[in-house]
Write a structure and sequence with these properties.
Structural class: mainly alpha
Helix content: 40-55%
Number of helices: 11
Shape: globular
Number of strands: 7
Oligomer: single chain
Radius of gyration: 23 Å
Distance between the termini: 71 Å
Length: about 280
């Protein structure tokens, strides 16, 4: 509760409690401590925030604005397939079969982690050290076993990726500074896109599209909502989104107002329609 009293969100305090509990649990297992005192503390209750996916009209405005920018297909993938940020940025061309219209999720782009590269202390954090050295690979495993999956691509998305691939090949041939990494989405030199840069690109895109500003993760919620509106079976939705439990489907499949109106219309038609007469 001390964290919350100092301004931290309940979700942050909950995560800290879970981390400490896990660490002390391992210490008990190794007989380094006798008791896991973290189990005596009660974690704060997390109130689930109401999800606010984009409406179809807003999605169209975002995709229209994205066409004027680099890596336009990156945002089309997020809004239509619901891939996590790390899954999109971790894509390699070897994961994409444009002829078959299939995309494979095999890795996850992780946030870079650095250590000092200076011989004497520079007084800065490792990430801001001018001679910093990255001590972690760019890619890691998917979030869960269910995260490794194959997804079918809509024809329009296949076309976007074909255009993107062709433009990327032209840049690779023209630029001497280009670094060939085999990644689908890169910075202007061919290197892996940093998650933080990707986040700021999303915020800039929303401003350009003139739509309300949301988290990048809300693009994923939007994709789940579209699948719900199309009445795609739950198991199929779980496969596309990479969920391992049905509880995630219940949280992400947000029922929008038009769907509620359609349900009401169906109920009204069933209960108040005139019965057929022989």
């Amino acid at each position: 509760m001390m964290l919350i009293a100092t301004g931290a969100r309940p979700a942050t305090a909950h995560q800290v409690h879970r981390t400490i509990r896990t660490a002390l649990g391992e210490a008990v297992r190794r007989r380094q401590v006798q008791e896991n005192v973290a189990t005596l503390a009660r974690a704060p209750k997390i109130e689930a925030k109401e999800l606010q996916p984009y409406a179809v009209a807003e999605v169209r405005r975002i995709l229209s604005a994205a066409r004027e920018r680099r890596n336009a297909a990156r945002w089309a993938i997020a809004l239509s397939l619901g891939l996590r940020q790390g899954e999109v940025l971790g894509l390699h061309w070897s994961d994409v079969d444009l002829e078959a219209g299939i995309l494979k999720i095999t890795t996850n782009r992780v946030r870079p982690h650095y250590e000092h590269g200076c011989s004497t202390p520079c007084g800065k954090t490792p990430g801001h050290c001018t001679r910093r050295v990255q001590n972690k690979e760019d890619d890691g495993p998917t979030k869960s076993h269910a995260g490794k999956r194959k997804i079918g691509l809509p024809p329009q998305l296949v076309q976007l990726l074909e255009d993107h691939h062709r433009e990327q090949e032209e840049r690779a041939r023209a630029g001497q500074l280009w670094v060939e990494t085999g990644r689908v989405f890169t910075d202007r030199f061919g290197r892996a896109v940093k998650p933080n840069s990707d986040y700021h690109a999303w915020k800039s895109l929303l401003r350009r599209a003139g739509v309300r500003e949301t988290r990048l993760h809300d693009a994923r919620q939007t994709a789940a909502t579209v699948l719900c509106a199309l009445e795609v079976p739950e198991r199929t939705v779980m496969g596309v989104m990479g969920w391992s439990s049905t509880s995630m489907a219940a949280r992400y499949q947000h029922v929008t107002d038009p769907i509620w109106h359609e349900v009401a219309s169906r109920v009204g038609g069933l209960l108040w329609s005139q019965p057929e007469t022989n």
